Amino acid sequence: MKTFAAGSLSVNIPAGRTTVAVVDGAIVGFMSVSEATGCSWINHLYLHPAWIGRGIGTRLLELARGELSPPIRLYTFQENQRARTFYERRGFTAVSFTDGSGNEEKSPDVLYEWRPAAEASSPSTSPRRPA
Q: Which structural domain, as residue segments, surrounds residue 28?
């Protein structure tokens, strides 16, 4: 497991693949993904606040859709309405809500899943977190 640290942010990145978004030599975001039996995961997708709303998050999601096997899953916090709206506008569907007891922060979260349009009508019933 690798750790990414910038200022007060410290994120554990599970074994998998990480894409770093760089603009004019500066890191402006990153996405870490992994594959598990039956699904793929976006484990982390973070952007520098100054770069939100400039299409970088969308490009990272497009990259994930092009490289990962569906369904693609991710968690975000229930209170993060901006992230929830972002994922929902890009075709992710909320498939389960938790009380947060299963995450480090103990904050209620929501599991999102994306499937290609032809598969979207049959979401999976296995919302296990990636290892």
A: 2-114
Helix ranges (H only) for 56-106 are 56-67, 81-89
Percent of the chain with pLDDT over 70: 77
Q: Which residues neighbour 64 within 8 Å (Cβ) at sequence distance 6 or greater? A: 31, 33, 40, 42, 72
- Both tokens of 55, joined, read 């299409």
**pTM attached to this predicted model:** 0.79
- Count how many domains the chain has: 1
> Has residue 121 been placed in a domain?
no
99-118 residue pLDDT tens:
999 999 999 999 999 999 86
